[in-house]
Amino acid sequence: MAETTDVNDLGAEKVCKVTPWYFRRMAMIGGMLLAFGLYFLYDWKIGYPKQNEIADQKDQFDEEVLTSWDKAEASGGLVQWEKMAREKGWPVGESGQRPSWARYAVPKGWPEDPDRHTEREVEDQFYWGMAMLLIAAAVGVMVLLNRKKVLIGRADHLVTPDGRTVRFADVIRVDKRKWDNKGLAYLDYQEKGEGKELRAVIDDLKFDGAGLVLDRVLAGFKGELIEKVPDPEDEETADESPADGESEEK
Question: What pLDDT is recorded for position 5?
Answer without folding.
Answer: 45
